[in-house]
Structures are given as C-alpha cells and as structure tokens.
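# nightly structure sweep
# worker-07 picked up a monomer target from the shared queue
# config: single-sequence mode, recycle default, output format = structure tokens
# input follows
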Amino acid sequence: MRQYPIGTPGQPWGEQEKQLWLEQQSIKRSYQQEVVNKLPDKFAGFDILKYGALPYDKARYPLYAVVTSSPDAGRPTVLVTGGVHGYETSGVQGALQFINQHLASYANHFNFIVVPCVSPWGYETINRWNPLALDPNRSFRKGSGAPESEQVITLLDDLALKIDMHIDLHETTDTDNSEFRPALAARDGVFNDNWNIPDGFYLVANTSNPQIAFQQAIIESVRQVTHIAPADENGKIIGADLVSDGVICYDKKALFLCGGVTDAKYVTTTEVYPDSPSASPEQCNQAQIAAITGGLEYVRANA
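# output follows
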C-alpha cells in the first residue's frame, strides 16, 4: 500500500504538515454558480436564511438554509442536510433539487430546515476535510473548531424547533480509498486499512435507535431509482454488520456525526455510490430525493 506523500509514517501531522496539505488544495468548481445560484430568490412559506459564513472567506462562502417561515407546532419538523462532506456532490445537488421540485408539495405536512451545502469550501475543492484538516462530519459538537459544524449547531439552537426527522445526504466514493482514508491515516499517524467500496445505495442508522421500519421505507423508495448495495463476502458494508437490507448502524452521537446533532426519533444517513457503472450523476441525485421523500411518507403515515 502506497505511503501518503505528506508526513512521516506513524507520526501524527503537526501544523507544518497540515499547511503543506492545504497548499496542495485548489478550487475546482464554483459554490456560487452550482449551489447559491440554484437557491430560489423567494419561496412562498419559506425563508431563504443566511445563517452564517465560513471564516476562510466570508464573502465567498455564505451559508444558507431554507426554513419554514411560520412553523406549525402541530406538524413534524424535518431537518435535511447535504454537503457535510463537500466532495459528495449528489448530497448537495439532491438537496437543491428537492427544494426546487418537491418541497412545496410537503409544505402543508411538515416544518422544514434544509441546509443544502454545509461545507462550501469542501464543495469547491472537492474535499472531505475543511482547510484546517478537520472532518466536519466528526465535529458536530460545540467547541470542535470546525466552523461548518458549529454554525449548523448554532442555527438549530437559534431556531429552537424540536426535530422529528433528520436525513443527512452523503456518498461513498472510490476516492475514499484512493485519497481520503490514506490522508486520514497519515494525519493521525496510524495504519490505513481500506474497506470494500459497496456498489449501490445504503443507509447508516443510529445504533441507539435504528428505527428499522423507517430505514426500510427509504430503501424501498430508493430501490425504484437505483440499486441497493449488497453485503460483502463477510456480510458487512464498510466493515459494519447489516441490520437490515442495505442498512448498517453507527453511534452517531459518540462519533460527533451530523446525524447525531439532534435528538430526532427518525434519523438516517444516505450513502450513494456515484462511481458505479450502473448509476449516472442524475440517478444519484434522484436517489437522494427518493430517500428524502420515502422518509417523509413514512413519518407522515406513522408520526
């Protein structure tokens, strides 16, 4: 297995190595053009809320959420997050397509908080980390030092809504093995153990409250759009045991994952495989939308 080009094997990175890594990153696409410009200017019943900006470049990286203007206490509140890992494109584009094409049809049944791109610097540089070499999806706690994560926490605190459902939109890509896991191991000074990249869609439920029927409703909705990932030869997906067809569990709060940022009853993290020969980019976007709507239909029927 190749050695990562930054750092010394077995030694965690210091500030010099982190700075060297940052200097090797470059802008590859436009957050303004591909994300901000796709947000509606006005949306009846919703506020297009600027909830902050990233300190690396506040003008370039404003942060937006689409939020129900007058939440109804009698309706479930749904949080949708995309782009926690900026390189996972369909999470961002799927969230934007949901906003523009589907959100209005659910507006009378739910209160919504939709954050389409949590990590715009990561989106532009096609990165898992932020410029500080921190993973926002391991940083959803106050004082983590990751502004992407901390500003979402502040947004939710300010809105002060009880969240009933949270769906966090992600991808598992071939670059997880070729770049991001080797970089993580080098940063932390540990041995890198790649995992099998599953070919297909899967979900990550919350270990403490998996809500299997909810997860399976989403799986069946997504199955109409793209294929569901099978288990590997060890009966696992990315090293975790299956608890249901296409579903594994992580302890989201213990790992400070975005999916653990609330106490919602219904929580899941989507994982789309954009490098599959059997899935187009638009299919991946549609899978994210199908996951959201499948979850909404389940909650509407069962909440």
